[in-house]
Design brief:
By secondary structure, the protein is of the alpha+beta class. It is built from 6 helices and 15 strands. The chain has helices at about 1-10, 15-65, 70-85, 235-240, 255-260, 285-295; strands at about 90, 95, 100-105, 120, 130-140, 140-145, 155, 160-170, 210-215, 245-250, 280, 325-330, 345-355, 365-375, 390-395. A hairpin with a 4-residue loop joins strand 1 and strand 2 (about 95).
Length: about 400
Amino acid sequence: MKALEAKLIRRLPAKKGQRGFTLAVTAAGLFMLVGMLGLAVDVGRIYIVKSEGQAYADLGAITAARALDGKSTGITAARTAVSNSTNKWLFGTKSFTDGIRTVEFGTKTSNSLTCSGATYTASPSSPYTNYGCVRVTVTPAVDMSFMPIFGTSYTQTVTSQAVAGVIPESFPLGGYMPFTPFAHMPNCSLTVTTGCDSTGNYGMLIGEEYGFRWPGNLNGQGNACEGDRVSWPAYNFSDTVSGSTRGYFELQAASAIGDAILGAIQTQPLSVGDVLNMTNGSKQAEANALNLRTSYDIDQTNYVAVTPSTPPGVAPGYYGNNMREVVMPVNSGPFTSAAYPTPYTVLGFASFLLYTNYTTGGGNQPWCAIYMGSSTAGGTGGVFGVAGAFVVRLTQ
């Protein structure tokens, strides 16, 4: 009997109130589901545009920083590089126009030579050598379809920003030669404003030759490399340093120096501001290592250096495989100053072109190389008033 009653109860139709409640709950659930789906669509659209904007800003900042050359033409080229980008937004359907794109240029605020703490302006002014950072900002407005239901705006501004700079590069083990030419004068910077080289070339002339290993006795100017005869005797190294100091640093053993010349590792990396440990000895046997290295180069042209009387200098049209074009740290020399209180401070890195043959005897002969200028990976260099090795990279 009880089983029959239970079966009859299950078969009774639902009351009208129960049917209405089910319908209301179902409608509310559908509304929430549609709202959540709509919210997901709007948020997804924002996320896509954010990603597209960041890609545009990253690429734009890097290409713009590569164009900086310490001149007003570099500023113009940087702006053009950003505007010429073909990257678009909203699934590649809209362009980043002037109204939603800002390009600003930053100057260093300390001697750190980085973009950290830089001051930015959309209208840079002379001296342009101080501008080594680019900040690209894009602010596209994305149309919202469902979020306005919850009281938000019908459009959402999506901001993307990137900063790229021309940053002095530290050299890894084996990335530089075991010789260090002296700067003829420091480069101009925020802390060095007088008696300095505004071109960022250490007082050297591109295309001229300078000594990277000098004899113990130059016997006047006759044994000096051509570029070192300028303003003589300020660069008569045999008079300004001990006779046993010839231009080598860090490494002492002839075998280790020979390995370093041929591309093996040194014992430590170098960066701007490091102090070099100058080592002693003529080490004439290292000419063999130099000659072996240069023999590996596909360009065996015997280039002739320009003379100081015909500035501005032009670098030789070298086309080899970088066995003759080498990087050397340039140091502040044996003297001290307020800007460089420690002798032999690394001021930067520079490229030099080796000759095809070096004398393997007669320790009173200098070894010269042609100064090629800044060594820059991915950019033109010449910013921040410092020549040497630079790399263009994102910093933010």
